[in-house]
Write a structure and sequence with these properties.
Chain lengths: 261, 310
């Protein structure tokens, strides 16, 4: 379970450019929740993820994960139990290292001086095969030579190799071509289901925001303006969402990508 | 040229090439793997020579080797600490440590800028005594250097396969990704620089013992010489596993020494060594750059021409 209590963050505080990126965010994520997050450009969706994963210290508030206060935990320590994928497919992998080496690093088995043996390599190969992308025959290929979709699939596998308490997906299919995006989304859904992961996903695709997961959160100006789940959510359409947005934020949704898709 | 001359040139090329290849392997770790250009290499090389010479003079030629390496680890740790914990740019921290080491090195040598090991037992004289009257006589320096290189090479190849080694490689490749794999890049950078500098110091220690001399200026410019060797090896073994590339670093160092020895034979003055290595480094880095830039450059030139004709 993840809980954000009164989390606020202002960038460039005290200057003319001060921007309140997160404003008194309260969010309780139950175990097994799959929450989709939508909102206009600059609404604070990615900032929310950065706060959760510890990319910067928050100004006020608390972040609690499974009862543990992680507000001041450095990002690399949070990464032990928070997996994250980005829109930029280059973020999650080391390009000049092979698929196998990337995965061995992520698997984190053994101590610092351990060398991955045959058993570990075979196990990793099987996990890669389970992605269903045929990448198991390219274990010795440097990741930088793979396509964007393939890289993102490897990143997803790396983030979930040891099932994290929380998986953050930051528009992780937005930079892919439609076919690859669909494939990665399918793999994502399957991975989340198989491992029973708790997951937050930022998306610009309104229909997948409603069809994926069990809860949808809408953000604007660093605030959560709408949070829906259960039957209410099941009856919502994309048009309803757009109306809700206008009603709650007082302006029309201006995410260009969102409107075009 | 007499056969004896050729043999002694080969021996000297092998000896100096192999000893300097330890510094090249150090840069292979810090520059190629960790993506840090460690400019403290010059000072650290001399530090290894100074510590090695002082310990050898006290009658412990074998102990001189771990002592020099420990000094190198310490120097690498300081360089890493400056850039990871004190917010000093990585190039600058290397330069700062290099400057500081000048004083440290003279202090280590007891205030002298030169130590003579002519009458001292070294690992090389020990090996000479061992191989005397055998078919290996005369090869003792090459043997010691080769043994050191084999040990370091094997260590390096295995080390880079461990989880820690993978993490160090990933740190140079994509620091963000290392953080997301819940590994602290500060830790990997520190370990990488400590290990690399241990080998640089070992290199200096062995050179001092083989030349029977530790001189405050003996490390000057070694970073450029080693970088030139590394890049020569890199162009020959550009595509390959880490193992192949590490071997390439050693081959590059020997080739560099060979070319240098040939140039000396052709009456190139010895003081040209550093200029030559500087030019090699420039060319080796410039060629891949221009290859990448050429298409745009060609287009721009071509279009200008067309516009001129029209």
């Amino acid at each position: 379970m993840l809980e954000l209590i009164n989390v606020s963050k202002t960038f460039n505080a005290g200057t003319e450019n001060a921007k309140k990126a997160l404003s008194d965010i309260n969010l309780k994520v139950e175990d097994g929740d799959f929450i989709t997050i939508i909102g206009s450009n600059g609404a604070g969706k990615s900032t929310l993820f950065n706060a959760i994963s510890g990319a910067f210290p928050i100004d006020t508030g608390k972040i609690i994960s499974d009862g543990e206060d992680i507000t001041y935990l450095p990002d690399y320590k949070r990464a032990k139990f928070i997996g994250r994928l980005f829109q930029d497919v280059k973020t999650g992998t080391a390009p000049s290292m092979t698929v196998e080496e990337n995965l061995m690093l992520a698997s984190g088995g053994g101590n610092w001086l351990s060398i991955g043996g045959k058993a570990e390599k075979n196990a990793l190969r099987e996990r890669v095969a389970s992605l269903g992308l045929g990448l198991e025959d390219r274990m010795k290929t440097p990741v930088g030579l793979l396509s964007g979709g393939q890289r993102q699939a490897i990143s997803l596998l790396m983030a979930t190799l040891n099932p994290p308490r929380l998986l953050l997906l930051d528009e992780h299919t937005a930079a892919l071509d439609p076919a690859a995006a669909e494939k990665i989304l399918e793999v994502t859904e399957r991975t989340v289901k198989e491992n029973n992961l708790t997951c937050l996903m930022i998306t610009h695709n309104m229909s997948s925001a409603l069809s994926l997961g069990n809860r949808t959160v809408m953000m604007t100006d660093g605030r959560i303006i709408f949070d829906t789940s259960g039957e209410e959510r099941a009856s919502l359409t994309v048009d309803d969402l757009l109306l809700k947005f206008k009603a709650n934020s007082g302006k029309a949704l201006d995410n260009d990508r969102m409107l075009l898709s | 040229m007499e056969f004896g001359d050729i043999l002694s040139i080969i021996q000297s090329v092998m000896e100096l090439g192999l000893i300097s290849s330890l510094t090249v392997l150090a840069l292979f770790l810090s520059y190629s793997m960790l993506n840090v250009c460690d400019l403290s290499t010059d000072g650290c090389f001399t530090l290894g020579a100074a510590v090695g010479a002082v310990v050898a003079l006290s009658g412990h030629p074998y102990l001189a080797i771990p002592a020099a390496m420990a000094a190198g680890v310490l120097s690498g740790f300081v360089t890493a600490f400056l850039q990871t914990r004190m917010g000093i740019n990585s190039l600058l921290s290397g330069i700062i440590v290099n400057t500081g080491l000048y004083s440290v090195n003279i202090a280590v040598m007891g205030g002298a800028s030169l130590l003579n090991l002519n009458k001292t037992d070294t690992v090389f004289t020990k090996m000479k005594a061992l191989t005397e009257n055998s078919f290996l006589s005369g090869w003792h320096k090459v043997l010691v250097a080769a043994a050191a290189v084999v040990v370091v090479l094997v260590f390096m190849v295995i080390f880079l396969k461990t989880r820690l080694g993978l993490a160090i490689r990933a740190t140079g490749d994509n620091t963000e990704m290392v953080r997301y794999s819940s590994i602290n890049p500060v830790f990997t950078t520190t370990v990488g620089l400590c290990v690399a500098n241990a080998f640089t110091a070992l290199s200096g220690c062995l050179l001092a013992q083989s030349q029977k001399l530790a001189d405050i200026n003996m490390g000057q410019g070694i970073v450029t010489v080693a970088l030139a060797s590394l890049l020569i090896g890199g162009t020959i073994f550009s595509r390959g596993s880490v193992k192949v590339r590490a071997i390439g670093a050693v081959v590059g160092a020997v080739i560099f020494r060979l070319v240098y020895a040939l140039a000396l034979r052709l009456q190139m003055p010895a003081y040209m060594l550093k200029l030559v290595s500087a030019v090699i480094v420039i060319i080796a880095i410039f060629i891949p750059y221009i290859k990448k830039q050429y298409p745009t450059l060609a287009k721009r030139l071509f279009r200008k021409k067309e516009a001129g004709n029209a």
